Amino acid sequence: AAKALVPLLRGAKRGLLVAGSLPRAADREAVAQLAAWLRWPLYADLTSGLRLGGSGGAVVLGPLDQLLHSPIVSRGLAPDVIIQFGTRLVSKRAASLLVDGGARAHALVAPGCARFDPDHSLTLRVGVSPADAVRALDAALAAGSTAHGNGNGSGSSSHGDCDGSGNGYSGSSDGSSNGTGSYINGYSSGYNGNGYCSGCSPSALLGVSSLCAEVEAALEEEMLAAARERYNANNNANNTTSNNANNNAGNNASNNANSNASNTTSNSVSNNANNNASNDKAHSDLSDGPLGEETLPLSEPLLARRLLQLLPSGDGFFIGNSMPIRDSDMFGPSRNSPTESIGPSHESPTESMSDTTAKGGLGGGSGDEGARGGGGGMGDDALRGGDGADGSEAGFAQQQKQQQPTFVAANRGASGIDGLIATAAGYARGLGARTTLLLGDVSALHDASTLHALRTIPASLVVVVVNNSGGGIFSMLPLGTSSPELLTPYFDTEHSANFAALCGAHGVPYRAAATVGELRRAYGWALGQAAATRRAVVLEVVTEREEVRPLHARLAAAARRTVERAAVRSLKLAW
Closest by alpha carbon to 387, among 57, 43, 81? Predict the structure, then answer.
């Protein structure tokens, strides 16, 4: 049934690949290689693992979720063919694009025969693993196959190649390649000399990657700007308290009214001067760059972004539900190369924009011209990217440089906050690699009894608890603005739990962080501790629950502004 994808691939002009949850390494490798072969952009859900490394020459669309805040993108992207590998996307906006984006064909490749089609948008269901599907496509394209249809993909209800067990897998049981697929060791005759698919047009959507990079940079700037404002507000509040204390002390020490007035004036002038100097220095110190952000307080989006930038390649990452998985998917980095070391003998990539951008835009063009942004729309100057996806052998060779992949997992579904610490510990043991768990405080309290077991479980696990004293996600509901007075008593499950004491009671090593610099140091310590002892470590990060909704609204507005500026730059004006 995978051969039914061939006419879709060869007939598409605005093709889009989507990667959902891909727990097997062979599947991730196959999907990334297919994206590079076809020269189609790949939207990689965070749970695919391809956002955090191992994407090879694929053009990965990182913060596409945030771009979709703008109708310019949500209506203008307009893919004609969508091939999805793996199920269940974190982003609701990205899932809506698959349904409402206007594609004439939407194929899902996932093992087994389960439908996985809640919106009834699928036109083709292929029930094999992504790795097996790519092997079959390799053979079919090499043979010039055009079987199974005329390329419109409509009306098909194929449920693929389900084996007797219904799992849709073949090959080795551990998920590794069995060596029969040329996607591992080279290219078959189905691909031209540059390693690209013969007879397939590069997608006209390739250039969206440069817009993604622009939006990601804008989101980074907005997060830091919000953190600076919060830092200065806290600073001013502390200075005001100090001023009042100094003034009161001066007033009480003087029995003369004139002396009181003089002291008050003197203290106020002196303290105000000191405050202004302190604030000026704060503004100066908190300039762009990693050194300038060390004292900035952590918001939840900034925590998710910095943590994923610091996560060493080759480690596991288990994501808790509620806001942690959403923030990680929306604001996590798109990284391709390790550039920073964290902890003893462990490399840790920091923020990196994809080098695999291409010239082009949201609209117009087909074939090579479409991939270069020809044919109008938001192409040309608006979304001009770098070299590397332009078809040159040098650019393609550079794309192949990749880091060790990061393994990502999550529990999605009903009762999604139950048992997360225990599940992550089991995942770390099964993976055989050090693993970081990011979860909320309420989730941690729901599984607090597992802390006792962590003393003896041989699992290298770093548990990062986001403590905002309740459930911040509920502020995202409509009642967060219509009836905010109902949140605290009825929805946000406010608590006053002391995680330091809780960890101390169970004998689990503990550290806390509230700023970017403290996170770097504490997380580096936790990574080293977990690796050395093969036991769990807890890192608590305290954030402000009240800023969840307004900060997300602010970041969404920043994404929209960035897209609109790109659209204006592409306008061809008459004057």
Answer: 57
